[in-house]
Design brief:
Order of helices and strands: HHHHEHEHEHEHEH
Structural class: alpha/beta
Number of helices: 9
Strand content: 5-15%
Shape: globular
Strand order of the largest sheet: 2-1-3-4-5
Radius of gyration: 17 Å
CATH superfamily of the largest domain: Cobalamin-binding domain
Bound molecules: cobalamin
Number of domains: 2
Number of strands: 5
C-alpha cells in the first residue's frame, strides 16, 4: 500500500497518488504513516533519481505536484489530531530558495502537535524574518533552507536579530537537507533537527525550558 503511494509520486501521477492515499485512508491507515512511509519516501526516491541524473528539474517538479496532490488529502486530518494549545512559531524558507516541501511537512506536524504556525512562505528575505519576529512575537523562529548556496542567510537572520537586540526574545531553530548540528552551532541557532517528528520533540524541549 505504501509502495503504491510512493510509486505514484515517483511516476508523477497526481490522480494515482490521490487514489492510493484515499484507499489507504479507507483502510484506516494513520495519515502520519501515509505521509512518512508513502509520500516522503517517494520524494526521497525522487531526490536519489535527481542525484543520479535520471530525473531533471521538470520531472522533479511534476513529482512535487503529485506529492502535494496526496498531501492535500491528509493535511487536514493530521492537523485535526491537534490537542493542546502550544507555543507560537514563525516559519519560513530563506531568500533565493523555493524548496518548500520540507517546510510544509514540518509545519503540518507542528500544527498537529498543537502549535500555532505563522507561515512566511518561501524565498523570504532576511529582513522579512526580522519584521515577522517583531510583529508576531513568536516563541520560536523556524528557518528552512535546502541549498548550500542559500543556507548562509540563516546566520544573517540571527545576526540581524542580535543587532536589533531581539535575539534573546526568540529561540531559533533551523533545518533542511544541507543543515546539521555543526552548522547550527556555527550560526548560533538554538537547535536543529532533521525531520518533522524530531522538530516537534525539539520544540517541546525548548518550550518546557
Ligand atoms: C524537489 C526539489 C526541487 C523542486 C522543489 C519543489 C518545491 N516546491 O519544494 C524544484 C524542481 C522546483 C527544484 C528546483 C531547484 N532545485 Co531542487 N531539489 C529538489 C530535491 C530533489 C528534493 C527536495 C525535497 O523536497 N525533499 C523532500 C523533503 C521531504 O525533504 P526536505 O526538504 O529535506 O525536508 C525535510 C528535512 O530537511 C526537515 N526540514 C526541512 N526544513 C526544515 C526546517 C526546520 C526548522 C526543521 C526543524 C526541519 C526541516 O524536515 C523535512 C521533513 O522530513 C532536492 C534533492 C535533495 N536531496 O534534497 C533538490 C535540491 C535541493 N535542488 C537543488 C537545485 C540546485 C535546484 C535548482 C537550482 C535547479 C536548477 N538548476 O534550476 C532549482 C531552483 C531552486 C531555488 N531557487 O530554490 C540542489 C541544491 C544544491 C545546493 N546548492 O545545495 C539539490 C540538493 C539537488 C542536487 N543534489 O543538486 N528542486
Amino acid at each position: 500500500m505504501f509502495d503504491s503511494i510512493k510509486q505514484a509520486v515517483i511516476e508523477m501521477d497526481d490522480e494515482k497518488t490521490k487514489e492510493s492515499v484515499s484507499i489507504a485512508l479507507k483502510e484506516k491507515v494513520d495519515p502520519v504513516e501515509i505521509l512518512e512511509k508513502g509520500l516522503i519516501a517517494g520524494m526521497q526516491e525522487v531526490a536519489d533519481l535527481f542525484a543520479r541524473k535520471e530525473y531533471y528539474v521538470p520531472e522533479v517538479l511534476l513529482c512535487s505536484e503529485a506529492f502535494y496532490a496526496g498531501f492535500d488529502k491528509i493535511k487536514q486530518l493530521i492537523k485535526g489530531s491537534s490537542r493542546k494549545p502550544g507555543a507560537k512559531i514563525v516559519f519560513g524558507v530563506v531568500e533565493g530558495d523555493i524548496h518548500d516541501i520540507g517546510k510544509n511537512i514540518v509545519k503540518v506536524m507542528l500544527e498537529a502537535a498543537g502549535y500555532e504556525v505563522i507561515d512566511l512562505g518561501r524565498d523570504v528575505p532576511v529582513l522579512e524574518f526580522v519584521k515577522a519576529v517583531e510583529r508576531e512575537k513568536p516563541d520560536i523562529l523556524a528557518i528552512s533552507s535546502l541549498m548550500t548556496t542559500t543556507m548562509t542567510h540563516m546566520g544573517e537572520i540571527i545576526l540581524e536579530l542580535e543587532k536589533r537586540n531581539m535575539r534573546n526574545a526568540v529561540k531559533v531553530i533551523i533545518g533542511g537537507a544541507p543543515v546539521n548540528e555543526e552548522f547550527a552551532a556555527s550560526v548560533k541557532a538554538d537547535g536543529y533537527s532533521p525531520d518533522g517528528p524530531s522538530a516537534v520533540k525539539l520544540i517541546e524541549k525548548i518550550v518546557s525550558g
